[in-house]
Write a structure and sequence with these properties.
Layout: H1 21-44
Length: about 45
């Protein structure tokens, strides 16, 4: 088994562009609101 190595010693980037902090906050708050709504719906029945 031969290991294939790149010509450059630079590390391979995991992602070219990291997601912005705003989109992460919007997604988190949206999922949080959905979870709270589902729990409130289940509790009210």
């Amino acid at each position: 088994m031969q290991t294939i190595r790149p010509n450059t010693a630079a590390p391979i980037p995991a992602r070219a562009t990291a997601p912005k902090m705003g989109t992460i906050i919007v997604r988190f708050s949206g999922l949080l609101l959905v979870a709270v709504a589902l729990l409130a719906f289940a509790w009210s029945r």
